[in-house]
Amino acid sequence: MEELDTPGESAPPLAETSPVAVNSELRNFVSLIAHQVSVRVAWVFKTESVLIPAFLDHISGSGIVRGCLPILNRIGQSFPPLWMADRIQTTPRKKWMLLLTTWLMGLPWIFLAMVLWQREGENFTGFTTLFLVLYTLFFAATGLNRVIFGTLQGKLIPAGHRGRLLGISGILGSILSVAALLYVQNYMTITGYRLYFVSFLISGVGMVLAGLTCFSIIEPPDHYEPSKNNLRQQLAEAGVILKNNRPFRQLAIVSTLTVTILLIFPHYQTFAREHLATENERLMSWVIAQNIGAGVFSLLLGWLADRWGNKLAIQVALGVIISGPLLALLLASPILEGLHPWFWITYFVLGMTPVTDKAITNYCLEVVPASEHAQSLSTLKLCMMVPLLFSVVVGFLIDLVGFTPVFVGSSLIVVYALWETRKMTEPRYED
Question: Phi and psi dihedrals of 213, rounded to 5?
């Protein structure tokens, strides 16, 4: 097989050069795709841009509370992975950690579904707080899961094949997610709390089942010294990586700017409801549009990454992301009512955002040594948390000045992120 690993990965641990890993690449490739696809199908029933904001409006309705979602999302995805980074890197077989965290991703949604069923959807004091706690726990498990998956992918799949892993898992996940939504369409046309009960239960059980795919992964053990680092030491290591690795530092800048687009994700559904006079009847069509977009964009970015590298894939992704908020404003404009039925295009474009995160992960794996994959991915997630500390402020600004200035501002920040990519290197083709 052609050697496609980059200088950053030139000193892999023993497991990465093991004949077991090489001979099992196809099986592991299929197993990792199966994991990503099954998680994706489960995830579609609780999308952050549609169902979660709609549910939060159902129990709260506050723009400031909606603004808590991005910051809780990133707090959960930032500190637990950083705290556990060395443990992840030094664990001999990471597939069991992937199994555990996938199961932990499902438990909060199963619990929430049981609460909704037991209370028959009745709101109660502290329900919003309970939801936000469960939401944070879910993303703590998700953050760990993604760092573990990225580290395991870096260990088992060569750099030049990761784009096709992204593309195939993306398009299969899109097809099966849409098929699952259409299959349960009769249930999803119900209203009130039953809509959310069915959605959250399917999501939680689906993630538990998704974990079973980890049993098919063949992973030779790593040979690292056991970690004894605490969170403070991990923070210090993150600073060292940012200081000493210029390509990684530039990626962190671009990623930190790009992630600001998530600040407005919880507000799209409310924006559409207010400007298009629509309720929950369009939720599923928007979820379907977003998932089709994610599948199409996964194929595109995966092909670009394997053919020309992840830098170009990231640049194309940012160009698409910039258009999302602007399309929302255009397609919901009161003076262009003929465009209102086409608002689903906004959600199609939003499908690029999670795909971009995977392209960023793949780029990160190429610019740092294999022995630092877990620490670097965790550091990157910590950097991406910083802008989301202002998510509550964004919710307050929307309540204060409206959607238009905030949406336009978000696009302009990503324009700057795209401009910063010119300083990024393409490690795969460096001499």
Answer: -65, -20
* Rounded Cα distance, 250 and 82, in Å: 19
Rounded Cα–Cα distance for residues 198 and 204 (Å): 10
Strands (E), 89-241: none
Q: Is residue 107 part of a domain?
A: yes
Query: Would you say residue 219 lies in a domain?
Result: yes
A 10 A CB-CB count for 411 gives 20
Please state the φ and ψ torsions of residue 427, each to the nearest 5 degrees. -60, -25
DSSP 48: T
Q: What is the pTM of this model?
A: 0.79
pLDDT in tens, 76-119: 888 888 878 778 878 888 999 999 999 999 999 999 999 988 87
- 306: tokens are 């394997």
- 125: in domain: yes
Q: What is the pLDDT of residues 387-431, one digit of tens each?
A: 877 877 887 888 888 889 999 999 999 999 999 999 998 887 664
* C-beta atoms surrounding 120 within 10 Å: 10
Q: Is the pLDDT of residue 188 over 70?
A: no
What's the number of CA atoms in the CB half-sphere (13 Å) around residue 336? 12
Nearest to 54 by CA among 40, 43, 69: 69
Inter-residue contact 240 to 381 (CB < 8 Å): no
Question: Dihedral angle at the C-alpha atoms of 248, 249, 255, 257, nearest 10 degrees?
Answer: -170
Contact 88, 374 (CB under 8 A): yes
Give DSSP secondary structure letters for 207-238. HHHHGGGGGG---PPP--PPP---HHHHHHHH
Stated length of the chain: 431
- Nearest partner of 33 among 159, 174, 130, 141, judged by Cα: 174
Range of the domain at 302: 18-429
From the list 396, 419, 414, the residue with the least C-alpha distance to 353 is: 414
For residue 103, the domain's CATH number is: 1.20.1250.20
Higher-confidence residue of 56 and 376: namely 376
Using an 8 Å Cβ cutoff, are 366 and 163 in contact? no
Q: Please state, in angstroms and as integers, the Cα–Cα distance from residue 414 to each residue in 9, 36, 315, 421, following that order.
A: 29, 27, 11, 11
Which residue is associated with the tokens 């600073």? 239
Helices then strands (H, E): number in the chain? 20, 0
Task: Report CA-CA distances (Å) from 38 to 44, 65, 170.
Answer: 10, 30, 11
**DSSP H helices in 309-372:** 310-331, 344-350, 352-367
Q: How many domains in the chain?
A: 1
Would 3 be classed as within a structural domain? no
